Amino acid sequence: MRITRLIAGAVLVALMAGCGGTTPSSTAPAPTAAAASSGGGDVSAGADVYKSTCSSCHAPDASGLKGLGKELVGTTFMSQASDDLVAFLKVGRGPSDADNTTGVQMPPRGGNPSLGDDDLLNVVAYLKSLG
Ligand code: HEC
User: Fold this and answer.
1) Distance 109 CA to ligand 1 centre (A)
2) Which tens digit of pLDDT belongs to each residue from 16-56?
3) Is the pLDDT of residue 2 over 60?
4) Ligand 1 nearest-atom number relative to CA 103
5) Pairing with 122, which of 24, 60, 115, 131 sits 20 to 30 Å away (CA)?
C-alpha cells in the first residue's frame, strides 16, 4: 500500500518535472521505491521516518513549507555524501548558525531524539531517492 503510494508519488513528480522543467527529465530514470542509495540505507523505512518526523516542517513531498522547513528534493545540499547528511541531521542548524537562511531552527534529529543514526541514514536514502 505504502509502496504503491510512493510509486504513484514518484510518477507524479516525474510528470510534473516533465512540464516546463529546464532540465531534460527524459534522460533521468524515474525514481522508484526500490531505488538504491549510493550511501546505503533503507528507502522504505526512511519514508516512514520522513512521514512521522520531517513532513510537518518539510512538507509531505519534501518541497518545503515557508517559515517551517526548506526544500529537500534534488538540492545542492542534499547532493552531499550520505554520511555528511547524517552528521548534519544529528546536530541540525540553529537560527544563529551562519548557514541558516530562514531564521528558523532545524532541530537536532528533526526534534525526535528517539531516531537512531540508522534511522537518519534511512531518511537520507529516502530523500536521495526523491531527487
Ligand atoms: C520543526 C521543524 C523541522 C523539522 C521537524 C525538521 N526540520 Fe529540517 N529544517 C527545518 C528548518 C527551519 C530548516 C532550515 C534552516 C535554515 O534556515 O537553514 C531545515 C533544514 C533542513 C535541512 C538542510 C536543507 C538545506 O538545504 O540547507 C535538511 C537536510 C533537513 N532539514 C532535513 C530534515 C529531516 C531529514 C528531518 C526529519 C528527520 C527534518 N529536517 C525535520 C525545520 C525542520
Assistant:
1) 9
2) 444 554 545 555 555 554 444 457 999 999 999 999 999 99
3) no
4) 17
5) 24
Distance 20 CA to ligand 1 centre (A): 28
- CA–CA gap between residue 4 and residue 23 (Å, rounded): 27
Q: Do 116 and 46 touch, CB atoms closer than 8 A?
A: no
What pLDDT is stored for residue 57 in this prediction? 98
Determine whether 111 is exposed, middle or buried from the number of CB atoms within 10 Å of its CB (0-12, 13-18, 19+).
middle
C-alpha cell at 16: 510534473
CA 105, CA 16: separation in Å to the nearest integer? 30
Q: What residues flank ligand 1, with Cβ below 6 Å?
A: 53-54, 56-58, 68-70, 72, 75, 77, 89, 93, 99-102, 104, 106-107, 110-111, 123
Find, among 119, 103, 101, the residue nearest to 47 by Cα: 119
Terminal alpha carbon distance of the chain: 22
